[in-house]
Each structure stands twice: as structure tokens, then as C-alpha cells.
Specification:
Blueprint: H1 13-21, H2 29-49, H3 53-58, H4 65-77
């Protein structure tokens, strides 16, 4: 079933993002840095609590082919 009109409680993506980041707007850099540290601390807790922390920490995202091509062009332009 497709609704002709969304319910009133549904917000746009822009409104949703703005609501998510509202508390950070205007926050001084030192307070933002504490938020980053808290986030990193939580992530490391989750890694250590996992069944395979070494595997998680060793993982590296593969470089996208488009990035590899761009790096090759950059390297070629420097010679």
C-alpha cells in the first residue's frame, strides 16, 4: 500500500539531519574534541568486546578503483 501523503510526524531528510547535529552547532572545538574522544572510546570498547578484535583492528577498506586511477594520474603528473 502506497500512501498518497506521508503522516505529519515524518520529517524530511534535511530536517532529520539538522535535528541530529543541532547540539554540535556552535560547540567550541574542545567540546567537539571530547565528543570525538568519547566516540572513539566507545568504538574501541565494542572492538575489544567482539569475538575477534585483532581481525577488526587489522581490517582495511579496499581502495576504490576510481581512487586508484586518480592516484595513478597524480603520480604520473609529478614525474
Amino acid at each position: 500500500m502506497v500512501l498518497a501523503k506521508l503522516p505529519g510526524w515524518v520529517s524530511s531528510e534535511e530536517e532529520s539531519v539538522r535535528a541530529d547535529v543541532e547540539r554540535y552547532v556552535g560547540m567550541p572545538p574542545d567540546a567537539l574534541w571530547r565528543e570525538v574522544e568519547d566516540c572513539a572510546r566507545d568504538a574501541m570498547w565494542a572492538v575489544r568486546a567482539s569475538a575477534f578484535p585483532e581481525r577488526v583492528l587489522a581490517y582495511e577498506d579496499p581502495v576504490p578503483e576510481s581512487t586508484a586511477r586518480a592516484l595513478a594520474r597524480l603520480r604520473a603528473s609529478r614525474t
